[in-house]
Amino acid sequence: MMKRRLSIGFGVLAVAVAVPFATGTPVFANLQKAGEALIKQILQPDVKLALSAEKQVVTTNPEGKKVVTWEALEGDVTVQPGDVLRYTLLSENAGDKPAAELKINQPVPNQTAYVLDSARANGAELTYSIDGGKTYSAQPMVEVTQPDGTVMMEPAPAEAYTHVQWDYSDSLKPMAAVQAVYEVAVK
Amino acid sequence: MNHLCQTVLLLITPHYFRILKIIAMSDDKLQPQRSSRKVGPLAIAALLAGSLAQPLLPVLALGTAAGEQISNTATATYKEDPNSQTTIDATSNTITVTVAEVAGLLATPSGFVDVNGGTVDNGDTLEFTFDITNIGNSPTDLFIPGTNNLNTENFVPSSVQIVDASGTVLATLPAGGAPLSSLSIPGLADLDPDQILKVKVTGTPAAGTPIGANVGVTLGNTGPNNNSPSTQNQPDTTDGANAADIRTIDANAANGSPVNGEREASASNSIPFASSVRPIALAKVTKIASNLNPGATVAANDDLITYDLGLTVENTSPNAGFRPNNLEGTPINVNGSNTPRVLVSDAIPVGTTLSSVDNVPNNWQVVYTTTPTSTPATTATWVTTPPPLTSVTRIGFVYSGGIFVSRGTTTSPFQFTVLTSGLQATGGQVNNIAQVFGESSGDPSNEVIYDESGDSQPNNFNDNQTPPDASGTNYDPSTDTGIANPVTQGTDTGNDNTGSGPDGEVNVIRLGEVAGSDDIFNGPNGVPSAGGPTDDNDDFTNRSTDVPSGLGATDTFNPAPSTFTNTIQNPASRGFLADVTIQPLSPTQAEGVDESTLAGQYGADGDIPDGTVVIIAYDPDGNPGNGDELTATYTWNSANNTFELNTSTTGGVQDNVAKPVNIGDLPAGRAVDYTVTIDLPEGVAQNDEIPVPIVAFPDDDPVASPGYTGETTNNITINRLYTGFMQVTKEVQLLDANGVIILPWTSDPDLLAGTGVKADYRVEYRINYRNISTPLVGNGNSGLTVMDFNIIEDGSAAVVNGSNNWASFTDHQQNTSADQGTVKFFTNSEDDQPLTTSDPVDKTKVERYENEVGQVDPGQSGQFQFRRIIK
Question: Which residue, B178, B371, B460, B741, shows the most beta carbons closer than 10 Å to its own?
Fold first, then answer.
């Protein structure tokens, strides 16, 4: 018989748990301004439209908070499915006379879906189309057939939106500009 | 008007509207405002998609194809003169952006053949087949490892080959592996999105493989190499491009690299040595709710739910250890005759009665039982003549077309309708799960083949294709009652048999007020609409306190406070929610507050230690110290099982009268974060689980009665705190020189001390580890995964409560095994470099073992075992 005492004490157990890391560096938005020369027309309103786009970049700062920044889409920047794009349309009256009843129309581009409530009115009346621009309303509704066959009207989902329209009741004075902003998500 | 309509017009038809409805209801953020009508359940809405929904095809390429261009041009109209009819058009510049290439890769085991049949023996030719799928959005080349770079287990590979769907060899990889493009296979220079490449690894068992040891191979080298999600579609950057990887290689470098980098994946398969591939029937029963008829009134207790069941007897096995066989009957008593029958059975859901049988497939006979559901379906008394339908406890379908249902057969729908007469008029929840019973054709042991509905695996196989037990089926009549319980069984949330977790998952239909779309979301950080195991109330964030080093297994401690960040959101598209308030609830209160009729999903009141402090904090601008922060501090009182509100602060100044955190109005679409700090008292045990349900709701009277007073618009999230979550136990077993067990596995040191130990006795140690945190069931939840778990067994180390001293009086003996990861054998305790990583011969000097387990997912467990012989 051996006079030994067996022990089943634990060895050292090392456990490491992953922590989230901050990814990337915030890139600050860089709003583009229309670069076109203003062309004067004698006693005519002349609304110039300059469209620019940015991509949403979400990063996590060292405190673990999510930080949203916007990266200008120019040069070789690409997007991927799930990215949110923000389009900014600068409408500037380069003419000598006020432009009346300005209506700005933006399609929701192919392969993207409108981000609900992302359009900013900036003094305009905002309406939306879900039928390719034929009709517009402030709150597009769709008919939904219920299991029992009855039809209910319900707010249209983001995927149904085809156009956003800004309707400015005030005239746009010469040299004045308005900015229309909306967001879409890449499918 | 001269609007340019550049977008493709969508045809507005009723059919299209139904699609819209599905989109709307499958995305919580888009749910419409609640209306007073009876709301159809999400589950029902999903299946209105009919052929549009293809839920059983999980592999989908990642959205828009690479290189597609998104083009945008704005137009405007205006007038020179408001009174004029003439409009002037303006068109903007066009902005075009290109969709980037995103790489994605899956690898799964897809078949096993022992070429000469029979048992897996020395010299047998074994073929393991794997499917590699491109889930990126662009064609990709692939690197495929050759025979020199496979992770093998008692297996000597002889070839790695590309085969087509019928098994014809298209190319053989060189021993060092090669890119797909270099193999010159016509039409397969690269792999298109969603395309599957079949790779066959051929070889033989290694000489000297012990009986029962796994013979297997891993194609690729990613993460734990165990078919878990951590082995799929991982960045290739972590370990660099190496010859053992299955990894993507950009097929078109000219258009840039994938924005997410190259990806890698691995797949493993194995079979025990000297086992034959067990022929077994692989039966899969499925269930969907196919229709909801709201009945004559708006009340929820006259609704009719129609269920469609399906049965598939599989023709391919998810696991190499089994070969598909036909499904024959198991004894079922029908009309007094207890003879073998294949039975598809469904317990009539609680709260409902059978209303009608709507479809019986050819060669099947409908049967009924009125035996109480406390008796399992296999011993119930069934009849073919319908009894009064309201007395039926289970409905069944038995096969009448022959002795067995052939493998490769799918039968559906077994269709019946139930009436929700037992629900409250205001609403309720109907839970249902289906079962199938039979036997493998010709199985002399007559083991019952058993499956539950709700997922895509036959025979209750696990999600990672492993069987429920070694025999490939595991029916226990005492527990497999067929009574649906979403809390313990989980739910098939999509109503499409894609549930995850062991065994089957429950189909849940909510009716009336409990079905309402949520008007407020409260969930984990950044995921306010997260869904938990049963609904969007029991979504959760799991965190762990630090555990001080040096604690003994049963020592208690006082953990530092832990802070959770949660997010609430108003999902509506218009308006706002007023006076949104956040506060903790007891688990019992939470059960009463949510819409569900279930119990237990929030844990128990007794789980929270007396004196636990919970602080809710909200900082509107995320800028601390500028006077707008709100906090409310609660203390748990175990005497009355409530969180008692002690103090509150506004801008850092204590309020005269304590009040809950009221963040004010929450506009449509807006999401805000808040924090919950949980401070546990002194004296808590390790590996404890403390669930704290947090409710967010618009307070109906924040002045006179602030806090939760039964507001029906509310949403809960669970902040679940662990005091450590890796449970580790060590056990010992003593065997004599002949292998006879002297002392079976025990972790009791006294038992060991009391056993006479003789020279030549074998001492086996095993370390069991388990990640006790709740599995990541549902969506958007935050779990606790151990990324880098190491077990270090030092035979001469001073450790807590005694010492490891086995190195001084025992020698190494072969029989080391690890469920996961590599094992390193060190000659001396203090050595930096291991002697070897394969089990050395008996009596090799080994003073330290290390099992580099790696990643341990929530709920996962494993073992590391080694054997010593007394000197």
Answer: B460
